[in-house]
Amino acid sequence: MTPEQRRQNVRLGLILASVALAFALGFAAKFVLLGG
What we know:
Layout: H1 3-34
């Protein structure tokens, strides 16, 4: 695996993690705001 591939993998991982985090935060916010 080249450093370039590794950098792309890290970037993809960060993007996926941020998307997952946004989903989790949205779910929690809905739960709090709407009472479930």
